[in-house]
Amino acid sequence: MIENSKPSGERRLVITGELLGRGRAGHGTYEDNGNVFSKFVGLAEARDDLHFVIPLSGVYNPKRGDGVIGRVTEIIFQKWIADINSPYEATLPLSEGVEGFVDLTKADLTKYFDYGDVVFTEIAQVSKQRHVTLTMRSRKCRKLKGGRLIRVTPAKVPRIIGKGGSMVEMIKQMTGTQIVVGQNGVVWMRGDNEDVAAEAVLTIEERAHTHGLTDYIKAMLEKRMGKPYVPKPPEQRDEGFRDLRSERGDSFEPREERTEHPQAEEGLGDSPFEKSAGGKSDLGDVENIQI
Amino acid sequence: MGGHTEEQLIVDGKRPDGRAFDETRPMAAEIGTLKRADGSGVFKFGSTWAIAGVFGPRKVLPRHREQSDRAILRTDYRMASFSTSERSRPGPSRRSQEISMVMRNAIIPALFLEEFPRTAIDGVAEILQADASTRCAGINAMVLALADAGVPMYDLVSSCSAGIVNGYTLLDIAGKEDTAGELDLPIAYYHRKKELTLIQMDGIAKPEKVKEILRVAIKGCEQVYEAQKKALRSRYEVVTEEAE
Amino acid sequence: MIEMDPMLITEIAMRGKRIDNRAFETYRDVQIETGIISSAEGSAHVKLGETEVIAGIKIEIGTPYPDTADEGVLTCSAELLPLASPEFEKGPPGEESIEIARVVDRAIRESKCLDMKKMCIKAEEAVWMIFVDMDVLNDDGNLIDCACLAAAAALASAKMPKLNKDGDKYEADYDVHEGGLPMTGIPISTTFAKIDGIIVADPNAVEIRAMGARLTVGTIDKAGEIKLCSMQKGGERGLKLEEVEKIIDLAVTKGEELRKKVRIAAGK
């Protein structure tokens, strides 16, 4: 039996091998004789005749341009190797991690990135055989110090971020934590109410396939924090990484009284490409990544 | 097999447990029971009980086994020492090694291996309780575990067996039917392509009879398919109800 | 060694010929020689094309299994000798040799060509143990059929040792032979591979690499008719029901052709 494609915007639960309808095969689906089938257990959506499925489980398959959170596991020759929560390791070459000339006869690479350092980084390239190259050149890239890391199913990252960043924004505001979400399913958070923020993220992961999730999380946060959620208008929102040089510190509220730019012990570290990062950073994109 | 066909098990057209000739034992299927595995599944045919866990796609160790353009699938079939009425020694036997191999060939056609080059997908099926059709239950559980792990697949693969007892063609033979019957034919069916991905036969029968048994076994696989699909759906549908 | 490109194989299949110019349903040349190993009670050397297997039968006295106390014991094993192919490794039996042993074992056991009850000397105490050991000397594809032919020919031409009773003990006298094993029917396995939708009989090594799936069907001649006694599907792809049915039909005819050769070689 061949079904017509569902109207745009409606999501429904499908399972592996399920017929979605006639049309074209988008992410998470394949086409066989004009019929489109799901490759996964997940949420199916259709835009006109393009079907796609967001899987409800699965590992991270690295994609160029993705912002991911990684941890340095090895340092060899002129590069760092990072675990990016994927079957594939990622390499950060020296030239992509440090600005300017580095005298390798004198330099100790751990000075820049040490074993165990956590970074928010961008995938510069993925070869056909899935050799992944990272870069720290993008303005949003930097070290993440302190705080905690949570791993979630990579496919559920869009739900954690929410439309236009609305979901993660709500959690940040209600709990007062800094949160960075990597496309690879790693979430970094730091603040006094890390526990509540973590619970919210994990709850979203568990309920990613349900309707009314935003209301559910809102109710949960309001109960935990004992205050109602009043979304700040966009201008007043802390965009996280935007213009770090004036907002550096371990609180997410900008501190105008600082005249120096002290290195925060905890929180968001420097961009290694500070010198070339003139002007506002474009880190607002981190929270607004849609699938 | 090696059955003694003199024993009359089918009496008055009824099987020892009262089932119809084309009826499987009650099936049970569940996913997500093993928290440490990337995916897991359970499948039962009556008292035959298989549990499977899947890890991956993940880095291949040893490295020289990796394939540059696709993932490799490694499957392991094991029987718990307490699974049979007489305790069996732990450790792989030639039989379990052979079954590990045919399980792998049964499932591979349905996987999108090219989407994860240089990785391994490792699946283990453990038989906790054995009463015939253990390899079928193992395959069914492993397919559920793969879907649960988010491994991309064309379709599910379903496995079931049929055989001959007292000259009659029966679906899902078990218990005395298994020990005293004349023939046992387990298969696995890949529905999207309508292909048999596992065929094994123990016993002796005329060619035309074997063709008939194959048809009955395929029907059994279709029933297994429904049970597997239901398990995958119900894993998520329960939480949906709570949210609303 | 230059490998044939699998794509080339399928092209050839489409043009109606295989790389060795055989028709799709034709087996390679079969040569069977029996009684070549004097230290064994039965033996056969089979060449199927360039694939070569030697099977040896040893018949000894031993104790039966408790749940088949009045039956002899059949044990089959196969070894892929490292000299048979650059790909064979030393060490414990791998998947392939286990599969060969188990498929041949099934064909012999399930066909009931050997009446194991006749192999009983004294229930619960002494029975004849029949060991079928197959050594693969050269692998040019289709080891299962070649090994089964060797096993069948060896069994059919084997000679039983004389049974001597010395007080309570039973002994076998290998210097005196007393007829052959009590066989009814000769089990034959026939293997067919599917390459790009085409079914070919007796795939050689190159075709095995290019194939999607293979199906081995064992047949036995009993009471004037041919019955199926085993089936084993191999390969990483599947087979449609029509393809399986076609292979079953081919197995009956091809099996009979091979069976005649075994009978001639074993002098039966």
Secondary-structure blueprint:
The complex is a heterotrimer of chains A (291), B (244) and C (268).
Chain A: E1 12-14, E2 19-22, E3 24-25, E4 29-32, E5 35-38, E6 42-47, E7 50-55, E8 67-76, E9 79-83, E10 90-93, H1 94-97, E11 118-126, E12 132-135, E13 142-145, E14 148-151, H2 157-161, H3 166-175, E15 178-181, E16 186-190, H4 194-206, H5 213-225, H6 244-247, E17 267-268, H7 284-287
Parallel strand pairs in A: 3-7, 10-12
Antiparallel strand pairs in A: 1-6, 2-5, 4-5, 6-7, 8-9, 8-11, 9-10, 11-12, 11-13, 13-17, 14-16, 15-16
Chain B: E1 27-31, E2 39-45, E3 48-59, E4 72-79, H1 94-107, E5 119-129, H2 134-148, E6 157-165, E7 168-171, H3 176-180, E8 183-190, E9 195-205, H4 207-243
Parallel strand pairs in B: 4-5
Antiparallel strand pairs in B: 1-2, 2-3, 3-5, 6-7, 6-8, 8-9
Helix pairs in contact in B: 1-2, 2-4
Chain C: H1 6-14, E1 30-34, E2 42-48, E3 51-62, E4 73-80, H2 95-111, E5 120-122, E6 126-138, H3 143-156, E7 161-166, E8 169-177, E9 188-195, E10 198-201, H4 205-210, E11 213-222, E12 225-234, E13 239-240, H5 241-266
Parallel strand pairs in C: 4-6
Antiparallel strand pairs in C: 1-2, 2-3, 3-6, 5-6, 7-8, 9-10, 9-11, 11-12
Short description:
The complex is a heterotrimer of chains A (291), B (244) and C (268). Chain A is of the alpha+beta class.
Per DSSP, what share of the residues of chain A sits in E-state strands of 2 or more residues? 25-35%
Give the CATH class of chain C.
Alpha Beta
How much of the sequence of chain C is in beta strands? 35-45%
Give me the number of helical elements of chain A.
7
SSE order of chain A: EEEEEEEEEEHEEEEHHEEHHHEH
The CATH superfamily of chain C appears as GHMP Kinase, N-terminal domain
CATH architecture of the largest domain in chain A: 2-Layer Sandwich
Supply database-style keywords:
heterotrimer, A: 291 residues, alpha+beta, OB fold (Dihydrolipoamide Acetyltransferase, E2P), Ribosomal Protein S8, Chain: A, domain 1, 5-stranded mixed beta barrel, 4-stranded mixed β-sheet, 27% strand, disordered C terminus, C: 268 residues, Ribosomal Protein S5, domain 2, 6-stranded mixed β-sheet, 4-stranded antiparallel β-sheet, 13 strands, 27% helix
